[in-house]
Specification:
alpha/beta; Rossmann fold; 5-stranded parallel beta sheet; 18 helices; 13 strands; 16% strand; globular; binds glutamic acid
Amino acid sequence: MSVTQRIESIYAQILQRNPGETEFHQAVREVLDTLDPVLAKRPELAEAKIIERVSEPERQLIFRVPWSDDSGEVHINRGFRVEFNSALGPYKGGLRFHPSVTLGIVKFLGFEQIFKNALTGMPIGGGKGGSDFDPKNRSDAEIMRFCQSFMTELYRHLGEYTDVPAGDIGVGGREIGYLFGQYKRITNRYESGVLTGKGLGWGGAQARTEATGYGCVLFTAEMLRTRGEDLDGQRVVVSGSGNVAIYAIEKAQQLGATVVTCSDSTGYVVDEKGIDLELLKQIKEVERGRVSDYAERRGAGAHFVTGTGVWEVPCDVALPCATQNELNGADAATLVEHGVKAVAEGANMPTTPEGVRILQGAGVLYGPGKAANAGGVATSALEMQQNASRDSWTFAHTEERLAQIMGHIHRSCHETAERYGRPGNYVVGANIAGFELVAEAMVAQGLI
Ligand code: GLU
């Protein structure tokens, strides 16, 4: 059997064993499509069935999460934790609370996390979790009861050396606080390193909140540098208005770019003068409002547009920072038509496979999420490091470490793509560089 046939048969088995999990299939397909040359060069990895093993989670947990709302009505949600791969360290990855969460979504995220975490060069394995719980319009007390119920089951599977969750969509500082409190209460241990994204006064790391967005922009700057450019004076379109989007906007502005958009599930804002970040933070982080409120309060110059058309706004750089499959083939074609130079993913798998093909085909610099958004989890690993040594670093020091890590990720993607004869292809670079690190550790640790 040729290497290509072998990979196709592995993929066919994955489809058969994981029916209906389309996002998981998509994430696996994208990685498998780049691994031919690795297997061709290293038959020992094929013999050890590394691809088959890496695409089967080490452990998958699904559990009931009962809770009662403020009126006393009982609700039942489903909780998930997929402990995907621990070759490089304890399972590490966020929790997502969103009504769209299914096992397939958690598996796609967990699968991506394995390679993303490897790319950071930090000692962290890959995992992901969450719930189909919808936090929208829930009171703080309801959020707290939900988090406590979720942790009442999950705690037995966690530990600073076992599995270390963090935030993702719908899970931020408030939720991590409630989850940590419940873990501490049940276990009677102040185990700081069991969760990351904690508050600054109780074990959290400086710059963790900013890290995913900042890292994404630093990665973009590195990509632009390979073509002798930087972000100064560039016009940037950002999607999303959550933690990743807000801090991508902040860093892009610091580097001299003008960011003209942000969005949420109802529509997007165009603000030609550049997003007023203080106003956006007030609305999103303090009031938990919508981007339409931003347009209203910002006044002349900014307007709100209903729907998903944010990619129609002309730009030099596009940063999808909202959610999976938010940038499709037609969107990519529009971006290319408008002369986009770089697209870097702050979200996980925001570009569809057709979108990726179009961007790469047009020679656009394209930074896949597992490289471009790895700054968040990398800074989580820095948080674990500080917790383990009972230390706490300054913002400047932590941000400097983040910048070094993003530089390292960019370099290893770039060099790996060159080494495999695909210069400038960051998908090939990220997948192969991440895969090789995980594969080597798996081979060394034997058949487990
Ligand atoms: N949810 C984030 C990600 O997609 C961060 C995970 C973490 O910090 O563990 O990488």
